[in-house]
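Let us practice reading a record.
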Amino acid sequence: MDKKHFFKNYLSKYVIILLFFAVISIVSIYFSHIYEQRIITGDDIQFHKNRIEGLYQALSNGDLFPRLNMTFLNSMGYASSIFYSDIFIYIPAIFRLIGFSITESYVAFLIIINFATFIIAYHSMFNVTKKNYNSLLFSVIYTLSTYRLLDMTTRAALGELLAFAFLPLAFLGVYHIFYGEQKKWYFLSLGMSLIIFSHLLSAVMFALFIFLFMILNFKKLLQNRVRLTSLVKAVLTTLPLVSLYFIPVLEQLASQTFKVGAAPIFFMSDKASNLGNMFLNALSNKSTPNIGIILLLFLFLYSLFFKKVTTKSTKDLFLISIFFLLLSTDLFPWKLLDGTFLNTFQFPWRFLTLVTLGLSWIISLDSLKLLMNKKLGLSIIAFSVLLSISFATNSRQDANEEDIVSFKQFNEISSFNIGVGLEYLPEATNYENLKTRNLDLSYNPDAVTIVNYVKKEDSVTFEYNTTDKELITLPLIFYKGYVSENSGSGAASAPFLNKKEDGLTAITVNGKGKVTVHYKDTLLQSISLYASLISWVIFTIYLLSLFYRNIHSYFIK
């Protein structure tokens, strides 16, 4: 068979695989998000609905790159768009723009995430094995894994769910740098950048994942400088790609103290799971943090026959997966680390993300040749699909009555749901006070006269008249970037943080005039945006040139 016929045959098989992925992308969430037009809400759903709705409102008002989300906190604003990248939620926000409801936009977005995860996982494995069978195994086992389904249903952890889609891509880069074709380091840059834009905590966990590979391959890196250079290239390429995220975050953190940097809301030691309970929940396919039946079964098999594993990459990945499994339980002495930065992870079982990635890869690569019989492999694929449906129905059955709502109820927004940790509020903010605060200006009416007050999104305008310098507090949470524009004979100060009034924005005025306070991109925000855009253009051209060369060389050989 010549190459053109081979390519045509492969393409026809690939179309069938894509159709399968599309069907399962819908089937796997049907009973949790579509059946009877009722939907499981999940722990973080209100926060993410507000993110989507706020971006939609900003786009409707012509603001293409909003820094503050004004849907939160009764339009006092929340810097979720700075601290928690909006890049991927442009998809459901655009669905809202073309007329879809919040429910329809959210469910469609979940289906797209499912489909993207299937495809990325498939191609990541195919890049190593060049085999449809192993690639299909990995794609299905990974995408329909229990912990990932938990993120999609009971937890509604949209950021972590998005990170799941790109972890295989980043791991592909790690695999090639340490064990494969080191010239393919760019997969790590691409994958890591997309993980950072999805969920920062997942990116930090994956950085620890890479660090452990570096420890296990320390001598190899010293002896093979080309691999070390490839790792450095991946890191240095990633930095400008994600500068539009990190630079604004660091700028805000340098400008004031936020609750995320103050006393921890959770201690990891209080949230650690019991390993035995985790395994029992896996066997019962429960909607609690666990690795699921299939991964648990192969975990035991590879533990029993570990000495028979001859592949260095599989050995390393298995040991690292076991380490992260222990990190996710109370077997690890989390109490000793309560005062460290690790508390920012909040829940030890977040590390099951990496356990899922590692074990799914090991199973599908099949170093022990347990799945040489393709009928057995296809049975595991069918079993994974069945388990995903079972998980959705179990989640529905186990959920509290108030956590399963109609599509109409799901469309409702609760603007004060900003996450349990209240991370992006100024430290001085009293959250309970904000919930009862109106949107009026706060000032001394005996000392200053205020007329024609108008608040619109992140902008406040009013006219003032006073003989002395007076403090005016605005119904806007303070973040670096607020500016004041004054007209008339009076003077208005630059906006600043009023620590005495719940972290709101304040200015001082003197004389008679008109002032408008609004949010404007800082210089660093603008520079980082353009630096990232230019970096992405260059990086994309580089990737396209590699793709063209590979295709061209394939057909001319």
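A brief commentary: Residues 523-556 form the longest helix (34 residues).
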